[in-house]
Amino acid sequence: MSDPVQTALQHQRAGRLAEAAEIYQTLLRADPQQPGLLHQYGLLHYQAGHPAEGLKYLQRALALRPDPACWCNAALMHMALGQAAQAIQAAEQALRLQPDHADAANNLALALGMLGRLDEAETACRRALALRPDFAEARFNLANILKDRGAYAVAQAEYRALLQQRPDYVAAQVNLGVVCELAGDLEAALAAYRAAATLRPDLTMAHLNAGLALHKLHRFREAIATLREALKRDDTLVAAHMAIGQSARELNDSATALAALRRAAELAPEDAQVKAALSGLLSAQIPGWHFPMLADTARNEAFAAALDKAVQPGLTVLDIGTGSGLLAMLAARAGAERVIACEAYPLIAETAQEIVAKNGYADRIAVIAKRSTELEPGRDLPKPADLVVAEVLDAGLTGEGMLPTIRDALRRLARPGATVIPAAAQVVAQVVRLPNLRAVNPLREICGFDLSPFDKFRNQSAHGVVRLDHEPYEALSAVLPVCRVDFANPPDWVQPQQMAWSAPILRDGTAQALVFWFELWLDAEIMLSTGPDGAMRHWGQAVCWLPEDRPVQAGGQMAFRVTLADTYFDFAPA
Q1: Phi, psi at 476, each rounded to 5°
Q2: Per-residue pLDDT, 466
Q3: Which of 46, 254, 262, 287 could form a disulfide with 54 if both were Cys (CB 3.0 to 4.6 A apart)?
Q4: With contact defined as beta carbons under 8 Å apart, do 313 and 334 qualify?
């Protein structure tokens, strides 16, 4: 070769492609029929990422002189263009001219693999290795083919043999991790991915695959840290954001989970798995009863009517536990000058603020992501509230903390004599027989087997919840009043109080439980009941089970000791 050719080759090998191209162009203008120069100039185009242009020069070279190396490189360019069949023909032509051309055998294997002809591809790879036993790329391709064929153990052996020969072969480390994972050995996969990341700290895939393996191993904190390393290099990795979201959810870190899954949804808005993960996280943020509660027309209309009556222009309203923001907007629509709506869960508060703005009340309703007990007078509330509305209730009336919440609000956040909605509640109760549910309260014999040890998983709280309109039951007493709770002047039951209460029995039978519910007075006129025939259908009734079945007779009395506490009622036989 002449000195200019040598100079061009040096530039080309060093990646100085523009300098090499200038020399090749000068030489080819002087003599365009030099196959060696055409070959090298074609390779230069391939190096520059232009395989189609490079292939044109190789074809000109081959027309002048059939050459196995040129055919071999033509196979590479055909593959780069997705032309597997043409690549096979080019590699086979090279091998016809030079049967011991290991690179051509390897390229043939790659092209056959592109078409899924894996048996033939394996044969071609083994031919390349027989010709050149230390041919690292051929062994890598062989291992990949074995992986694709599902021969995981043999593929692992080939990757490990290659890594003994070439410990710095990063792609082999990554693919070793992949095949170990496919074989079910996550620890070995993780070790391989970490080895790849050590060799190439900038290799995004190594960090990504290691993080995904850690997630599958339930090592969630490590998974999040490792996946964040991948995202430092490429923030568009949907799989990384998804796995961070799922790992954070397992760690009960809802904020991190939400941020990650929202980013995944931005990147892949139509991905079904992303949609399902985000929806599952969001739905877990609120109890399922929110939706049937919002669908309770009687409840909504009653609160709207009570607020219409109570709200006067210029009033400041405090809405405790705003949820969707419905009661706050009803107060604003009724004419409140300012509504402070507090919500303990930040994501729900954020959504309530969105709803408030969407409905045009952002100028009058402020949603604060705090519990009412955390609100600061003068800062969160510009002035004491004139009206407090709160529906912090459960089937047993006080289980959600209504009493301490209202006491605190009236003491710190409201003016003296402030209106409270609801104003009061009347608790009523009834002695019943509940045969179906009795079988699992407590859990005893089922189908002839003693399942009582499983009873430890039953809710052992003071009361459960039942829907009498859905369950067969027998009323053994009338529905009788137990006590009245005035929310404008809430009782102090921080220390539980006890009272005696008895129910006259109307008919012979077997008493199994005491069921109670409440009549909710929003004001002096508007009342809703949570009873089986009441207007509020979404709560159900509270049930306290008797320790043992008790025979009762008409005309008798059944006495109870009632415990009144800030967060529960309990009825125990006296």
Answers
A1: -100, -15
A2: 93
A3: 46
A4: no
